[in-house]
Every structure is written in C-alpha cells, then in structure tokens.
Amino acid sequence: MVEPPHRRTASDELVYVLSGEVTLVTDSGEEVLHAGDAAGFPANDSNGHCLQNRSAIDAQILEIGTRTAGDTAHYSDIDMTAPADGKPALYTHRDGPLRKPHPPRPLTLPERRRYSWLGF
C-alpha cells in the first residue's frame, strides 16, 4: 500500500532518513533520499508529498511535525481530504463524506488501487 501525496494546511513537516533510502514523491517530481538526507514541507504549501520505499531493504525515517490544531490534510492525486481534528482519522471526499456505492457493489480494480492504503 502506498499513500498518495498529501499536503497540510496548518502543520509544518520535516523528515530525516535515518537508514536506507526512500523516494520523495512530490507534485513536481521525484528524488531519492539516502541516510542523512532531510526534506521539509511548510504548512499550506500546494506541492503535495509522500515517501515511498522502492528498495529491497528497510528504511527508517524520523518525521517531525508541528501538529497544529485545525490542521487538514489534502491528497493531491485523489479526491480525498482528512479533516481537522478527526479522532480517529476521518477521510472524506472534498465535497463531503465518503459514500458507499448504492446499490452496494464490489469496487472496481482502479478503485481498489486508489483506496487500498485506506484499507478499503
């Protein structure tokens, strides 16, 4: 499962690669980060980001964030938002809550791939 790129509205984020290597995927491209590399993401930056381990070895990452109250996460590749202060985490479409298909039907393969990281 791979989480799609996201951005936060109110929290800054910093990641530091402790060991291994990861691919930093942003809306503007990709870059491989190795042990000792860091990347920062300011709050409300429109450039979504995520980290993917595409190597055959484990990677360890330290992630630090401000975790500001009222922070919302937006996922730039899909129509998904994690509203502020969702406890537990709540994911919605930008125009409202996730809705189960009506009548109920199995998800298509593209839908399963799109939402697999959510456990759908």
User: CATH H level: which superfamily?
Assistant: Jelly Rolls
- How confident overall, as mean pLDDT? 76
Shape: globular
Using only C-alpha atoms, the radius of gyration works out to 16 Å
For the biggest sheet, the summary is: 3 strands, antiparallel
Number of domains: 1
Strand order of the largest sheet: 1-8-9
Secondary-structure element sequence?
A: EEEEEEEEEEEH
CATH topology: Jelly Rolls
Question: What is the strand content?
Answer: 35-45%
Number of strands: 11
From the coordinates shown, what is the CATH architecture? Sandwich
* Classification by helices and strands: mainly beta
For the termini, the CA-CA separation is: 11 Å
Low-confidence stretches: 100-105
Percent helix = under 10%
- Determine and state the CATH class: Mainly Beta
Number of H/I helices: 1
Description:
The structure is a single chain. The chain has 120 residues and is mostly beta strands. Helices cover 6% and strands 38% of the residues. It has one helix at residues 109-115; strands at residues 6-8, 13-19, 21-26, 29-34, 38-41, 49-52, 60-65, 73-75, 80-82, 92-93, 96-97. The strands form four sheets. The chain has a three-stranded antiparallel beta sheet, with no helix packed on it. A three-stranded antiparallel beta sheet has the order 5-2-7, with no helix packed on it. The protein is globular and about 40 Å long. The N and C termini lie close together (11 Å).
